[in-house]
Amino acid sequence: MTKTAQAALPELQTTTMKTDDRKEMKEKGKNFLAGGIAGCCAKSLVAPLDRIKILLQAHNHHYKDLGVWSTLLKVKLKENISGLYKGNGIHMIRVFPYAGVQFMAYEKSKEIVKMYLHNYPQIGKFLAGSMAGISAVSITYPLDIIRARIAFQVTGEHLYIGLTDAAGCIVKQDGIMGLYRGITPTLMGMIPYAGTTFFSFETLKGMCVEYFPDLFGKPCPQDTGGIVLTIPGKSLCGGLAGLIGQTVSYPFDVVKRKIQLSEMLPESHKYNVRWYRIFFIVYKEHGISKGLYRGMSINYIRIIPMQATVFTVYEQLKQWMGMDTCITR
User: Fold this and answer.
1) Tell me, what DSSP letter sits at residue 327?
2) How far is residue 169 from each of residues 166, 172, 219, 256, measured CA to CA in Å?
3) pLDDT along the chain (329 residues), means of 10
4) What are the Solcar repeat spans here (predicted)?
5) 3-state SS class at 94
6) What's the CATH number where 280 sits?
7) What CA–CA distance (Å, rounded) separates 326 from 230?
8) Does a structural domain hold residue 21?
9) What sign does the CA torsion over 304, 307, 308, 310 have?
10) Is 261 helix (H, G, I), strand (E, B) or coil?
11) CA dihedral defined by 84, 87, 93, 95, rounded to 10 degrees?
12) What's residue 118's pLDDT?
């Protein structure tokens, strides 16, 4: 090798590294964008059901003796159609970065976990999903608590008039940590929820391609010899994955809402305890179906179309942006 070639080698390596870094950043950006858009589409679709779920979970005194459909009709009657979307604007501010970070972190976590658990791919899928969920929650949690409190309000009984007012009141009353009230059970619930949801989606995708390739699959656009799921296939896998994940983790969501909304509940003093004790309080007072799983029926109604939409839109956007979503049989 000549001296000129030797001198040029480090420069070539540096250029290659910069190119790889730019390529990786571009891919992360695409994952973030696709995830954010998918999350907003999915959450907007089920926004009315989200509002009803919050009212039922925390036993709002206007609706505590009502079921799902009775609550839906009463909210429409009391607050008009717009009442079904209360807090949704703030929710979109949270959902875009939440879903974007979650999917971006999932793709990166899959690579990291694969290096250490390449012999245990199923465990790797679960861990990657859990890591992604924890990352997304940690970054966007304050917006979740603000949105929950605004959605819990009913017409004529407003404590907060908007995002900044709610944030200011919470910080004034409880300090900056008030914006993170309930984050521990949220993170604890996110481990089984996100882990199970992503694991189930990836597993169901593989099953569809293996057992029903003609029904749910089509040739990969990148012509790699693999198969991509059709839109019905993605929707089916996404919906079932969401149903499984939410069933496993739902009690954590109920406890989280109790803590988030405790300052707005008449019996707020009961929830000023360690988060794990709230499980026993809810169970003792309301049991399982009307306590730890209260609102679960509406959650199934919302979670199936929501997760079907988020995974379908995410994978479809990735395909449109030229990213590989193929599965090799």
Assistant:
1) B
2) 5, 5, 55, 20
3) 53 60 87 96 89 76 75 83 80 92 95 88 93 95 86 73 86 90 89 95 92 86 76 95 93 83 68 80 86 83 93 94 78
4) 26-112, 120-207, 229-320
5) helix
6) 1.50.40.10
7) 11
8) no
9) positive
10) coil
11) -60
12) 83
Extract the tokens encoding 295: 């609102």
Angle at 219 between CA 218 and CA 223, to 5 degrees: 160
d(CA 297, CA 294): 8
Instruction: Assess if residue 5 is contained within a domain.
Output: no
Does residue 296 lie within any of the structural domains?
yes
* Token pair 């696709």: residue: 34
Give residue for tokens 């090799």.
328
User: Backbone phi, then psi, for 255, in 5-degree steps?
Assistant: -65, -40
Total domain count for the chain? 1
CA angle 195, 187, 164 (to 5 degrees): 125
The greatest distance separating any two alpha carbons of the chain, rounded to the nearest whole angstrom, comes to 85
List Cβ<8 Å contacts ≥24 apart for 314-320. Answer: 314/34, 314/35, 314/38, 314/103, 315/228, 315/229, 315/234, 316/231, 316/234, 317/33, 317/34, 317/37, 317/38, 318/30, 318/31, 318/34, 319/221, 319/228
Question: 326 in a domain, yes or no?
Answer: no
Q: The whole model's pTM is what?
A: 0.81
End-to-end, the C-alpha distance of the chain in Å comes to 44
